[in-house]
Write a structure and sequence with these properties.
With about 350 residues, this protein is an alpha/beta fold. It has 5 helices and 10 strands. The radius of gyration is 20 Å and the shape is globular.
């Protein structure tokens, strides 16, 4: 498979990944450090605020404005390990076993007031890929995404809201936790949940998956790795975040998802170095009233999306995360500043974008 792009939705077979893990040794190399580099416009379709659904008699979805995010590289800090219960949704991503005696953190039900504290130091390994990370105490897969109690909202009954919330979480799993998608496959299950009549979004998704570039970056919506460059260090993704909802325009159910995903990976060609890619996504979708907006049953309209990526590759336009191994990265600089990828106390920042140094990974 060529670096970065999709190739007929193919991915490395599970048995090949498993063999990589069995043949890898103990320990880990130096954690990656990618100091700040030149700022660039982040490709994407990000809006300052959710757009208003258009009445069905004149449905012309608006073009979302681009917003800058951060492409940041990781610095390893600290230690505490845990694996929580298996993901009830069945799409649990990547991870390792960890310290089963560590106390898991409670589910997130509102925006936290402070960033998670530092953990005891240590480098991640194939056996302990979350060593030194606050994510060691997070839940696995969709178990880390809090879904609030449903209530009748807008045009939907309580039962319909409950189904819409479940399907929104299904989209997050299909976009960011599906093993086949993480290994470079096409996110068919995720696309199937998106309103096909939202033509601008459909065109963006199609182009970004076929021929990614700085203006069409699939990483703004989907988590994907090039199996020729990186392999999973374990079989679970750690997550932390929540859904919230309200009544939107024209009586629609507007759902906001704010979730951080932590992916431990190792070099594709073998070796025991482990680094972590951390991705935070804020996604707003609208479950529209079909009597007012052109839509298909069981699909939503995408209103806005913002993404922060840590150690996913600075100035990366390949369509796949490109984690740095071997402590590589550009020469040191100060123009990009620093960022804590585990700090969820505020919304994802806009601004000038660019590449910053992560305070921990």
């Amino acid at each position: 498979m060529s670096v970065g792009g999709e190739k007929d939705g193919s991915s490395v077979p599970d048995e090949v990944w498993a063999e990589f893990l069995r043949t890898s040794g103990e320990g880990a190399g130096d954690a990656p450090k990618e100091p700040s580099a030149r700022a660039r416009e982040v490709a994407g379709r990000l809006r300052d605020r959710p757009a208003e659904p258009t009445p069905w008699r004149a449905h012309t979805p608006g073009r979302p404005r681009r917003r800058n995010g951060w492409y940041v590289a990781g610095l390893v800090a600290s230690l505490v390990l845990l694996v929580v219960a298996l993901d009830p949704g069945g799409l649990i991503g990547w991870s390792g076993d960890g310290d089963r005696d560590a106390k898991p953190v409670a589910q997130e039900t509102a925006r936290p007031e402070e960033a998670p504290p530092a953990e005891p130091g240590g480098r991640p390994t194939l056996d302990e890929p979350f060593k030194g990370s606050p994510a060691a105490r997070w839940a696995n897969g969709t178990a880390g995404i809090t879904v609030p109690p449903a209530r009748a909202t807008g045009w939907m009954s309580k039962a319909e809201v409950e189904r819409a919330l479940a399907r929104t979480r299904d989209f997050l799993a299909a976009s960011n936790l599906d093993p086949a998608v993480l290994r470079g496959g096409r996110p068919e299950k995720a696309i199937a949940l998106m309103n096909p009549h939202q033509k601008d979004v459909t065109a963006f998704v199609t182009t970004s998956l076929r021929t990614p570039d700085k203006d069409h970056d699939p990483l703004l919506l989907f988590s994907r790795f090039d199996p020729a460059q990186a392999r999973p260090a374990g079989d679970v993704v750690k997550t932390r975040g929540r859904l919230s909802f309200r009544e939107g325009r024209l009586g629609a159910l507007e759902v906001t998802a704010d979730v951080t995903y932590v992916y431990p990976v190792a070099p594709a060609g073998g070796g025991d170095e482990v680094v972590r890619v951390i991705v935070r996504r804020e996604t707003v979708v609208s479950w529209d009233d079909p009597s007012k907006v052109i839509t298909e049953k069981g699909t939503f309209s995408l209103l806005s999306y913002r993404t922060d990526m840590t150690n996913g590759g600075c100035d990366n336009t390949t369509g796949s995360f490109r984690p740095e191994f071997g402590g590589g990265g550009p020469a040191a600089g100060a123009d990009g500043g620093t960022v804590d990828p585990y700090d969820r106390t505020g919304p994802i920042a806009g601004g000038d974008g660019g590449c910053a140094t992560a305070t921990r990974s």
